[in-house]
Every structure is written in C-alpha cells, then in structure tokens.
Amino acid sequence: MNIFRLCGDLSHLLAILLLLVKIWKTRSCAGISGKSQILFAIVYTTRYLDLFTSFVSIYNSVMKIVFLSASYGTLYLMFYKFKPTYDHNHDSFRILYLIVPALVLSFVIVHAYTLMEVLWTYSIYLEAVAIMPQLFMVSRTGEAETITSHYLFALGSYRALYILNWIYRYYTEDFLDLIVIIAGIVQTILYCDFFYLYITKVLKGKRLSLP
Amino acid sequence: ESFKVQHDEL
User: How confident is the model at residue B4 (pLDDT cuts 50, 70, 90)?
Assistant: First the structure.
C-alpha cells in the first residue's frame, strides 16, 4: 500500500458513494447511464469472485464488498426504485460492442488460462471502457449536472492515481503487470476530454455543457 | 496445474 493507491481507492469509493447518494437524495437517476452501471456491476462481479478464493487483507475484502454492494444498490435504484426517472432514450450506446471485444481480448492476452484469471482479465479490459456509455450520454445531451461531473472526475482520477501507484511499485518492489497498466492508461485517456471540461468549467462554478 | 496469479489491488 502506498499513498497513490490509497488516494486512488478513496477516490473510487467517493465516486461510487457520491452516485448512490445523489440518486437517493434527488430521487432521480436522470443523466446517469444505466448501461455504464451494468458494465461496472459486471466488472466488480468478475473481478471480486476472488473474495472466496484468496485473501489479501481485511482492507481489500471490505472494499470489495462495499464496491459490489454499492454497484448492485445503484442498479436497484436505477432499474427498480426510480426507474421512471431513467433517461433510456439518451442511453443508446451498444454495450455489446464493449462486452464482446473485451471478452475476446481476455482470452487472447491473459496471464494464465484458468477461469478466475480469465474473468479477472476480462474485468480489467471491460473496466477500461465501461465509462463510454456514460460519456456518450453526456455528449448526446450536451450537459451534465454538477454532481454527475464530480462523480465522473472522482471515477476518472482513481485510475490516474493507480498509474502513479504502478510507477511507484515498479521502482520500489519490481511490480510490473502490463495487462492492468495498459488497460489503466487506456481508461484514463478516455477521461482526458472530460477532465479538461471539468477543470475549465465545473471548477469555475459553471455547469458542464458542451459547445 | 495450480498456477495462480496474486492480485493484491482493487
């Protein structure tokens, strides 16, 4: 554990809880992509199956349980409790275009051919692109609520902080997992456009709207 | 084959 990873994890946690609280408080999931949330639920499920097979630390296990619960809680709020507020007309990204290539790639580039390892790798590839339906939705509606912008910024920062963590781990403990590093870089690049808008607009008190 | 990769991150 180092400061970069801890900050990354806390940023990830903040993002997930921010979204949950936002939906709960406003009684609405308008502007949130249900498809991205479905992808994140698949990501957490396939990655954290190892809760049952390998123990790293209490910290890791608790975080995994929180991520899984919050993810399914978000799906429950979006597709059941506040379903009438779900803006499915603007959530039109075809997620099979992400699900299938990620699955194929996880069979091609993987550390070891075991079920758990392929599922873990799949979760890494899918996570890298899981935000695309949400970003697509923002670009279609041309705007995002400020709280949604904070959510996206925290979620994007998490993998950027993990990149610093991997650089640190490379020099301090010879850690080098190219699968997760390259996927993490791709994931962070996808947010760059959004980061720019967030810094130039949202942080100056303006609403995020596209020109 | 009991090869297992250790993943210690989230």
Answer: low
Asked if A12's CB is within 8 angstroms of B10's CB, the reply is yes
Q: With a cut of 70, say whether residue B1 has pLDDT above it.
A: no
A61-89: per-residue pLDDT in tens?
A: 999 999 999 999 999 999 999 999 999 99
Q: What is the ipTM of this complex?
A: 0.87
pLDDT > 70 fraction of chain A, expressed in percent and rounded: 100
Contacts of B10 in chain A (CB under 8 A): 9, 12, 60, 63-64, 67
Which of B3, B8, B9 lies at the smallest CB-CB distance from A112?
B3
Q: Among A4, A49, A67, A117, which would you mutate to test the B interface (most chain B Cβ atoms within 10 Å of its Cβ)?
A: A117
Q: At residue A208, what are phi and psi to the nearest 5 degrees?
A: -80, 105
Q: Residues of B with CB below 8 A from A50's CB?
A: 7
CB distance A15 to A151 below 8 Å: yes
* A44, A101 contact by CB (below 8 A): no
- CB distance A20 to A147 below 8 Å: no
Which chain B residues are within 8 Å of A117, Cβ to Cβ? 4-5
Encoded tokens for A19: 């979204």
pLDDT 10s digits, A94-106: 999 999 999 999 9
A79 closest CA partner among A89, A90, A88, A66: A88
